Amino acid sequence: MTEQDWYLQQCNITQYILRNSAVFKGEMATHISDEIRLIVVADQKPTQKIYTDILNAIRLKEEQVLILTPSQLIIPASDIKTVIWFIDITPDENWQNHLTIQTSSLDVLANTPQQKRQLWRQLCKYENYFHPEPQ
């Protein structure tokens, strides 16, 4: 026991051990497996029927979608080679790239045919990212 540990113990101060200090340094990144075909960024996991309908329409399973909150999206945009769909989130300027989709809330989307058409056009444009050709 070090002298510092002894003093803390005498003052009845509980010591905690930080096991993953890289999290505070911004070094902790979310791992994106090879099976992930779409990253959804939303405040909470989408549960609306339109969300499951969209996944079915583009033939993706839940296991192929990574859902992140904005605070979990700490990966640099340049490191991501997957389509990113921001639902009711305005991405920072550094996230504006050719693989980004941005829509309003799913409730609004479900009731706005024009927005649904626009989303569908974008999804069709990224079909090769959802279902890449075997190499």
UniProtKB/TrEMBL annotation:
General function of this protein: Part of the beta sliding clamp loading complex, which hydrolyzes ATP to load the beta clamp onto primed DNA to form the DNA replication pre-initiation complex. DNA polymerase III is a complex, multichain enzyme responsible for most of the replicative synthesis in bacteria. This DNA polymerase also exhibits 3' to 5' exonuclease activity.
Name this protein carries in UniProt: DNA polymerase III subunit psi
Segments crossing the lipid bilayer: none
GO process terms (BP): DNA replication
Domain of life: Bacteria
GO molecular function, one term: 3'-5' exonuclease activity
UniProtKB keywords: DNA replication, DNA-directed DNA polymerase, Nucleotidyltransferase, Transferase
Signal sequence annotation: none
